[in-house]
Amino acid sequence: VQLQASGGGLVQAGGSLRLSCAASETIINISFMGWYRQAPGKQRSLVALITSGGTTDYADSVKGRFAVPGDNAKNTYLQMNDLKPEDTAVYYCYAKRWDGFGYWGQGTLVTVSS
Question: Per-residue pLDDT tens for 78-90?
Fold first, then answer.
């Protein structure tokens, strides 16, 4: 299974972007799909996820601004609104199975200018 992320780019503060992540095939026994990000000099951290049951979870820093719709097993998105310069990072999509095996997509760069 390969994850393909897209949708990054340059946006002004207050703007919006929508990232997409598509799996090459339906992931069997998926636990969740989600998004991580890594800013320069920082560790990769969870941004948002959606579980197989449709439950979503968000980092405190993005609550109320980001949303993670998706079909839970093959495609997921990250709708980012009211973007801030501190949201600048490389964003990675990720999928995890119930047995603990995970898949990473390639990163997509989001740059928010002030």
Answer: 999 999 999 999 9
